Amino acid sequence: MNGFPHRMRVESVKPKRGSIWSMYKRMFFHVRGQWKLLLIAAISIIAVSLLEFVIPQLSQYTIDRLIPNKRYDLLIWIALGVLVTALLLALFNYLSGIAMASVGQKAVYDLRNQLYSHLQSLDIGFFDRNRTGDLMSRVTSDVGMLQQLVSSGMMSIVTDTFTFAAVAIYMLWMDWQLTLIILATFPFMILTTRFFSKRIRAAFKKIQQSVAEVTNHLQDTLSSIRLMKAFSTEQYETERFADRSSANRQANLDAVKLRAIYEPIIDMLNFAGLAIVLILGAKHVMDGGLTVGTIVAFLAYLRLLQNPIRRFSRTLNTVQQSAAAYERIVEILETKSQVMEKANALELGRVQGHVVFHDVSFAYQPEVPVLEHFDFELLPGKVTAIVGASGAGKSTITHLITRFYDPQQGMITIDGHPLPDIQLQSLRRQMGIVSQDVALLNGTIRDNISYGTPHATDAEIEAAAHAANAHTFITSFPLGYEAQIGERGVKLSGGQKQRISIARAILKDPRLIILDEATSALDTESEKAIQDALVHLLEDRTSLVIAHRLSTIQRADRIYVLDQGKIIEAGTHDSLLAQQGKYKQLYELQFPQKLRDIPAGVVTRGMK
């Protein structure tokens, strides 16, 4: 559309591939305050690395000194030394393991909470663009992958790095020529690791994405189980789930294949180092340059040198899994909300509820405008109604008033304050919303009425239920207000759900009420009970009523007829009928001549 401002879509900033170091830096950021545990872990790791030298030294001393001199009296001390060393190794490994696990769990705890808190701060548009199952997978499965890294992988990497450095230095001191020949195999290991690491990470990222698809399917189907049963699509959904599970299986097999190639190559290079020591070491012994005990100790040190490499080849899977998960987590953490709150945003006091749209243009997608140069006003303490066909933009108006979205052009004010200048929570605290799709949580009736008003007393909750015509049906349950309503309120009828929603809005005591098709899906009896409840809700408040049923808005103070994002008619019920326009056409469709004298339902301020 010419001249329409395109909506700027803020994409997530993806971290660079190969960002393992940044992953460790972020994890360290979460644990830097736990210096006592980190100190215990560091001391334990150093102790383990030093103790690793003891047993090879005892072996060398036994072979070179005790056996040739037949020192039977010292054998018991050698055995005791080995046992004490083993006990100390077990103790320090335990301490380092517990310390690193505690540190790691704290990091994961903080990261998961940070991720969830950040998700809560994102705008509704973000959730429109992303599937619930994928977000659930990132908070649970992906963070769980990082938990493996920080709980065991990080400790293994730190310990092995320190041990490798210490052993390599000592071996160079023992026989630098032989050690350099052995170390010549390590560049090949490093190149092999680099070659496979990128591919393994890509494979694990594919696994994480396939897990997200499985989670998405589970979330979609389990939350729509009644729809599936009603249309007998169990077999169809089972086949779709099997397809996603098959993709996950294949992704795992691809990762296993890479690991099955990588690990034997590392083992082969390790055995090449062993062969070098055996050949050259044996030659030195035969030439008299080394003792048998020295070459035995050297072989033991070679094992200590190779073990970190061998373990790292296995830890690489954890690291790359974690790196793939980390990328998906950072994608969320670096996503910025499109609806931003200013640093010095105003905290609203109790408002009158005068809402004005000034030349507002909005589109969910740039090519499909919903509102164009739209002007609109809600007068304080008055009931304002909007009617129009589906897709005319009625619900979009409510989304903009609650600032779920920001317009691309124009300004919306409440009591003269532009919405972007107001703290979001203080703005939304002024509003109560009752919609056709009632959102209820799995819990008790009391929990759902008091949701958003957690400090309400029992008397206040019951008063709100009375005002919403809900107290009678609530007390008919054996547990009354403590009755469980099931997931999304499945144990309640449509009218009961709606009255719970109205009670929740009454308890909140908002200044601005939004009714979005609140009675369109109800039977006549339920609609009458709810309309009576709405009398209490709308009294002396600014009200915006969106409805298909004209019976619910005939006594509104002002009615707007919306068509394709534009107001085409405005006035009272009687004046709009006199205009002989769109409103009258809608009225005649809903009220044939023989029904026109039936008393209208009531959604009005104070029911005067």
Walk me through this protein's architecture.
The chain has 608 residues and is an alpha/beta fold. It has three domains: 24-333, ABC transporter transmembrane region fold; 342-430 and 512-517 and 544-608, P-loop containing nucleotide triphosphate hydrolases (Rossmann fold, 3-Layer(aba) Sandwich), CATH 3.40.50; 433-509, 3-Layer(aba) Sandwich (Rossmann fold), CATH 3.40.50. Helix content is 61%, strand content 10%. The strands form two sheets. A six-stranded mixed sheet has the order 6-7-8-3-9-10, with helices on both faces. A four-stranded antiparallel sheet has the order 2-1-4-5, with helices on one face. Keywords: ATP-binding, Cell membrane, Membrane, Nucleotide-binding, Transmembrane, Transmembrane helix, Transport. It is found in: Cell membrane. Residues 39-321 form the ABC transmembrane type-1 domain. GO terms for molecular function: ABC-type oligopeptide transporter activity; ATP binding; ATP hydrolysis activity. Belongs to the ABC transporter superfamily.
Kindly list the characteristics that best describe this protein.
6-stranded mixed β-sheet, ABC transporter transmembrane region fold, alpha/beta, Rossmann fold, 3 domains, 4-stranded antiparallel β-sheet, 20 helices, 608 residues, 10% strand, disordered N terminus, 10 strands
